[in-house]
Prior knowledge:
The protein is of the alpha+beta class. It has helices at 40-55, 60-65, 138-147; strands spanning 13-15, 18-24, 70-80, 89-99, 103-112, 115-127. Pfam families: 4HBT_2 (PF13279).
Amino acid sequence: MTSSPFDQPYRGGFAGTEHRFALTVYFEDTDTAGIVYHANYLRFFERARSDMLRAAGIDQRAAIDEGLGAYAVSEMAIKWRRPAKLDDDLVVASRVTNVRAASCTIHQRVMRGQELLAEATVTAALLTPEGRPRRQPADWVERFRSIATEEGNE
């Protein structure tokens, strides 16, 4: 079988300091009325954050393999505004708003065109393999700071 461009997974990317991750709502994301089930927004947010880390040059798999640890959500606040529906094309826009020694805060929005459907503020902390908070590597902190916006600035 020959390789084609369709064999590569989709990757989002940065538009300035905002990371953009596009997705389509599939049947598996919805309830019987064709409305996205509320818990699936967490999956959308998680995919976008993971892709943002990759786009920022942070290799989560290598960090785990090397025993550095992994990010875990320590706090999340979500506001649902309008429902997403089957076959909607959405964009999850993510911005780092605060960087601390062991964690960072990310503001995320799920958009359908210009319409805001949901937004979340997420704090992700770097944890050791034993589950204890640890300082982020200095180069990661620098990468986050280079893409960070002021808290509350959208």
